[in-house]
């Protein structure tokens, strides 16, 4: 075909026509250049916002804690296992409650003992949350739970110590009522369980026991007087034991001496009897010698250095003194 179709437009002609339009309207060219970067920025901003929302609604459950998931203030889930979780944006929120053991210092309190002594008690408690849902429902926060726990502990400690004497409180091992800490712990847990606070007290201990300043001297004097009475009692008991032991020893000594003297007298009498028998047997063989021996023995007992004896010359007793033996 040599003729040209009036509806046919070549590519070159179209390019030239578009170029002329752009040259005639430069403002339109500028608007077209800014559309693509604007869309890109908007997309990035939207992605960033979505990322922030996603990150802020992811929660981490660590070892030793509970995660409480709330929806419009109501508890919908309690997570106690470590891991990751996610809440519904703008609807749900999380609260962290510790699962580990906690130590709580109880305020000092002044109480009266059974023996009417005023003392200041400083306690501490070891406790934990065993039901976070009940704790939040009935106490609200950990601070409120600790406040209620402290009220119960103070009430129970005041009651229990009011039944004990001061000496039993100072030395808990000598108390006739058993361990004070165990009794207080058990009673406090009963009160907490009755009100469904969702917490448990593991131990309550007396950290320090002091006397009021105005009562220290009076109590010290009472303690000194009491110790003096105890010491005097020991001394009196010691003296009584001493006298009892001495009396018993003297009695045993007298019995031993009496038995010894009795046995000695028996032995002496037996010896004298045996000696007399021997003498009799010996002297019976020579009566004259026996008489002479008896006379000489009598001289030993009757004649001394200054003894004067007046005897007739023919007296048999004087004959031996005079040397006459026939």
UniProtKB/TrEMBL annotation:
GO terms for biological process: proteolysis. It is found in: Membrane. SMART domains: PHB. The chain crosses the membrane at residues 40-61. The keyword Protein biosynthesis does not apply. Belongs to the band 7/mec-2 family. HflC subfamily. Its main location: membrane. It holds the Pfam family Band_7. Keywords: Hydrolase, Membrane, Protease, Transmembrane, Transmembrane helix. HflC and HflK could regulate a protease. Residues 56-223 form the Band domain. This is Protein HflC. The keyword Transcription regulation does not apply. GO terms for molecular function: peptidase activity.
């Amino acid at each position: 075909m040599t003729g040209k179709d009036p509806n046919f437009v070549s590519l070159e002609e179209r390019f030239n026509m578009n170029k002329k339009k752009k040259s005639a309207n430069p403002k339109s060219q500028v608007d077209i250049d800014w559309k693509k970067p604007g869309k890109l920025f908007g997309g990035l901003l939207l992605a960033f916002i979505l990322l922030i929302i996603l990150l802020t609604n992811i929660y981490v459950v660590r070892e030793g804690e509970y995660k409480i998931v709330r929806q419009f203030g109501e508890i919908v889930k309690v997570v106690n296992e470590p891991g990751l979780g996610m809440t519904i944006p703008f609807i749900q929120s999380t609260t962290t409650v510790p699962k580990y053991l906690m130590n709580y210092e109880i305020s000092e309190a002044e109480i009266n003992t059974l023996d009417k002594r005023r003392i200041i008690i400083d306690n501490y408690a070891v406790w934990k949350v065993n039901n976070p849902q009940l704790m939040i429902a009935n106490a609200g926060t950990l601070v409120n739970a600790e406040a209620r726990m402290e009220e119960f502990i103070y009430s129970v400690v005041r009651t229990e110590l009011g039944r004990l004497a001061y000496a039993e409180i100072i030395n808990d091992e000598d108390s006739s009522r058993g361990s004070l800490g165990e009794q207080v712990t058990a009673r406090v847990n009963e009160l907490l369980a009755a009100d469904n606070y969702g917490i448990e007290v593991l131990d309550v201990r007396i950290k320090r026991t002091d006397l009021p300043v105005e009562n220290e001297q009076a109590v010290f004097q009472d303690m000194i007087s009491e110790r003096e009475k105890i010491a005097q009692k020991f001394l009196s008991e010691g003296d009584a034991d001493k006298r009892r032991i001495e009396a018993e020893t003297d009695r045993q000594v007298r019995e031993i001496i009496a038995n010894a003297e009795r046995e000695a007298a028996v032995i002496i009498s037996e010896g004298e009897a045996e000696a007399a028998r021997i003498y009799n047997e010996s002297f019976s063989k020579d009566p004259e010698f026996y008489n002479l021996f008896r006379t000489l023995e009598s001289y030993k007992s009757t004649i001394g250095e200054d003894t004067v004896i007046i005897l007739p010359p023919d007296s048999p007793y004087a004959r031996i003194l005079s040397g006459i033996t026939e």
